[in-house]
Design brief:
alpha/beta, Rossmann fold, seven-stranded parallel β-sheet, three-stranded mixed β-sheet, 12 helices, 12 strands, 17% strand, globular, binds nicotinamide-adenine-dinucleotide, binds 2'deoxy-thymidine-5'-diphospho-alpha-D-glucose
Length: 351
């Protein structure tokens, strides 16, 4: 059995990944560490039981002593690092948490992996590591910056991040690269496009718009609403990460994307239709500062080299997602009845 440390496994993608692995790949024992920030929610894992295959530990990835204790106790041989501050708008208001969690936290995990996996830890020239270990960094297409009307991001597109969030993710990617180049740590980096699906925190476009439709509240579209994102169902992202874990060539970066570009306003109109709301709710508000105009992922490398391809069509994925949020309004209510209400008022007050 392999022992995989999943970080940030109480968040949106991490919790989907934990469940995917437990259901589909029982050869892995999952140790999930999460600091349970505002975005971490154990309700996302309500149906996951502690036992032979699964353990949860509340732990901040910046806390090197606890991280090392877990590596030792659990004989960790694989890391998938989801833990991050993930919301661009919050990074514009308070960049520091992004620097400490996304960059310093990543470096703490890399150091633990190096310490526990290196065969001769006291020899700085020795690059040999235990057989079968791997560190996988879950990154984002945002590290490449913004595209104009044409072109796509490939794995060799220069990094050109524009927000404090994407800058912190790009910095983390560079540390991961450096630990591979300098020490020989076996790593992969995945860079994925916008995810959607169940358990996404309602600060993000799709669950936010859907919840506002349900409540009959204005739908705050930034700027002209013509910014473009490439949308991928979260379960396809999880399968992509697993594929890279199993088959990715060590030291390589793999883009993961859905070939599914949509303007924000198209998404908002789709949600209005699915929720049976009115387009009169659409309210154009001040644009996000430094707002990236367009993202598009060229996923040729992962599809041709590793045989991964998205399974969901957007039509099927969005229909299931809307149904999930409509059927699970209590889940959203538990979030929005807490601190999130203050965040929402503050974030959209002057827009
Ligand atoms: P999320 O905000 O829903 O979840 C983040 C999780 O990390 C939460 O459970 C939170 O409690 C935890 N966390 C935050 N700081 C921590 C710390 N210091 N120590 C331990 N745990 C901490 O985020 P998400 O949307 O699930 O994104 C997960 C990862 O995927 C992130 O690294 C993000 O950059 C990347 N990503 C996200 C998307 C997307 O569309 N959501 C796309 C590409 C890449
Ligand atoms: O591209 C991958 C990234 O996708 C991930 O790395 C990030 O963690 C994830 O949050 C997401 O970033 P975005 O900024 O693209 O996602 P968000 O849901 O915040 O916004 C999607 C688009 O919708 C973006 O162009 C901004 C716009 N938007 C968003 C909100 C919250 C609005 O117009 N109004 C809104 O209220």
């Amino acid at each position: 059995m392999k022992n995989i440390l999943v970080t940030g496994g109480a968040g949106f993608i991490g919790s989907n990944f934990v469940k995917y692995m437990l259901n589909e790949h029982s050869e892995y024992r999952i140790v999930n560490i999460d600091a349970l920030t505002y975005a971490g929610n154990l309700e996302n894992l309500a149906d996951v039981k502690e036992g032979t295959n699964y353990r949860f530990v509340k732990c901040d990835i910046r806390d090197s002593a606890t991280v090392e204790k877990i590596f030792a106790e659990e004989n960790i041989d694989t890391v998938v690092n989801f833990a991050a501050e993930s919301h661009v708008d919050r990074s514009i208001v308070d960049p520091q948490a992004f620097l400490t969690t996304n960059v310093l936290g990543t470096q703490v995990l890399l150091d633990a992996a190096k310490k526990f996996w290196k065969l001769n830890p006291d020899d700085k020239y020795d690059r040999s590591f235990r057989e079968g270990v791997k560190y996988l960094q879950v990154s984002t297409d945002e590290v490449y910056g913004a595209l104009g009307k044409t072109g796509m991001f490939t794995e060799t597109t220069p990094l050109s991040p524009n927000s404090p969030y994407s800058s912190s993710k790009a910095s983390a990617d560079l540390f991961v690269r450096a630990y591979h180049e300098t020490f020989g740590l076996p790593v992969n980096i995945t860079r994925c496009s916008n995810n959607y699906g169940p358990y996404q925190f309602p600060e993000k476009l799709i669950p936010l718009m859907l919840n506002n439709c349900i409540k009959g509240k204005p739908l705050p579209v930034y700027g002209d609403g013509l910014q473009i994102r490439d949308w991928l169902h979260v379960s396809d992202h999880c399968k992509g990460i697993y594929t890279v874990l199993e088959k990715g060539r060590v030291g390589e970066v793999y883009n993961i994307g859905g070939n599914n570009e949509k303007a924000n306003i198209e998404i908002v109109k789709l949600i209005i239709k699915a929720a049976g709301a009115s387009e009169e709710l659409i309210t154009y508000v001040k644009d996000r500062p430094g707002h990236d105009r367009r993202y598009a992922i060229d996923n040729t490398k992962i599809t041709t080299e590793l045989g991964w391809a998205p399974e969901y069509t957007f039509e099927q994925g969005i229909a299931e997602t809307v149904k999930w949020y409509l059927d699970n309004q209590e889940w959203t209510e538990h979030i929005i009845s807490g601190d999130y209400a203050n965040y929402y008022d503050k974030m959209y007050k002057n827009a």
